[in-house]
Amino acid sequence: MPFEEIDHTADYMFRCSGRTYDELFTSAAEAMFTLMFDSRKYAGISRRISLDAVSPESLLADFLSEILFISEVDGIVFSDAVISVENSDGRYVLSAQVKGESFNSDLHAGGTEIKGISRSEMNIINRDGTYYTDIIFDV
Predict the structure, then answer these.
(1) β-strand 3-6 against 76-88: which pairing, if any?
(2) Which residues form the Archease domain (predicted)?
C-alpha cells in the first residue's frame, strides 16, 4: 500500500511512498481522499490543477491544500488523481487532474473533516529508490 496511517496524538498522520514524485503525490492525495470520505467514485467531475514551488515539500503541501479548498468550495468528493511532477530550472512544477463526484450528504456522511495540511513533519526523503514522507492532516 502506498500509504499507511501512523499513530499521532491529536490529528491524523500518514506515511506515503512512491518510486517517483508522481507516485508519491498520488499516494498522498489518495490518503487524503480516504480520510475525507468513506465512499467515493469518479462520476464525471474533474478539475485541473497547476502549481509550482521551490521545493517538493512546499509543492506537496500546496497541492493537498488546493484539493481541500476545491473540495470544500465546489462540493466535490475526489476519488482519483493523475499527477505529473517535474523539476524545471530549480522549481518543482505540478500538473494534475483530480476526479470525483458531487457531494451528496446521503452518500458521503461519516468522513473526517480536514481543517488543513501541516508542514511540520513533511520531509521528503529518498531511501533505496523510493520517496517517503509523513503528512499530518489537521482535523
Answers:
(1) unpaired
(2) 3-139
Residue 109 has pLDDT above 70, yes or no: yes
Q: Please give the grid coordinates belonging to residue 86.
A: 517535474
Stated as kind and residue range, the H or E segment containing 65 is: helix 56-74
Residue of 19, 26, 10, 17 lying closest to 67 (CA atoms): 26
- Which amino acid would we find at residue 127? R
Residue 36 in grid coordinates: 475525507
Sheet hosting strand 45-53, strand order edge to edge = 45-53, 91-102, 76-88
In the predicted model, is pLDDT for residue 1 greater than 80?
no
Q: How large is the C-alpha radius of gyration of the chain? A: 14
The pLDDT, as a whole number, for residue 10 is 81
Q: What gap in Å lies between CA 130 and CA 24, rounded to an integer?
A: 9
Reduce the DSSP state of residue 91 to 3 states and report it.
strand
> Using one digit for the tens of pLDDT, what is the confidence trace for 31-49?
999 999 988 888 899 999 9
**DSSP state letter for 132:** E
Assigned C-alpha cell, 107 = 452518500
